[in-house]
Amino acid sequence: MTAALLVATDDEVRADCYRVLARLFAAPPDTALLAILADAASGTDDELGNAWNELCTLAAGVMRSGIRGDGADDTALSRLADEYSGLFFGVGEPRVMLYGSWYQSGSMMDVPLARLRDHLARLGFQRDPQVREPEDHFAALLEVMAMLVADGRAEQADFFRRHLASWYVHPCQRLEADNSEFYRAAARFARGVLDGERELLAR
User: Fold this and answer.
1) 13 φ, ψ to 5°?
2) Please, what is the end-to-end C-alpha distance for the chain in angstroms?
């Protein structure tokens, strides 16, 4: 995937964007994800392309930190894991919330989550019993969008409008103001992709 393709309406490219975003926000990056990003920079210089290239450049820098040059060292991976935990799992209220209900109603496990669960059931999605996070986690919603887009399902626009469109910008803006270079870049990329999706799906 290259940034030049990110503005395309091709469903395969769109699904890939959602998959990358879902992985970025589901857990701290591992060597496999960083290696993919490190080799994926492009030559585009628009706003979205710059965000993508910045993310890829940061991933490449972490990969170069490996002693033999063939992978990120444990210190670099641990730092990114600490940044992830510090942002999204702090004691008390995290610095950045990743749950839709929080932005839609002001509290966790509220009416928006119940509505989401009902909608997921009607779409034929079942909760993985091994997943501990509520279904309104940012990464989970991005993964659902990836599947809806990949399958060419007409419900993708309605799902995006109901469960992402009203709030995705808020965690992205908070991350863009944070001191984590990696997650600032991830947030810029996420906001660019989702802004494009909002426009595309409103047609």
Assistant:
1) -65, -45
2) 24
Token pair in block for residue 68:
């033999």
DSSP state of 99: B
The residue assigned the tokens 């909608």 is 119
Helix (H) or strand (E) holding 184: helix 181-201
Question: Which two structure tokens, joined as six digits, stand for 145?
Answer: 């969008």
Please check the confidence at residue 6 and state whether its pLDDT lies above 80: no
> How high is the pLDDT of residue 129?
83
For residue range 93-110, what is the model confidence (pLDDT) as tens digits? 899 999 999 999 998 888
Distance separating alpha carbons of residues 126 and 149, to the nearest angstrom: 18
φ and ψ at residue 137, rounded to 5 degrees: -65, 140
Backbone angles phi, psi at 199, to 5 degrees: -70, -45
Q: What is the pTM of this model?
A: 0.91
Right CATH for 3-201 from 1.10.1530.10, 1.10.3480.10, 1.20.1250.20, 3.40.50.720: 1.10.3480.10
Is 55's pLDDT higher than 60? yes
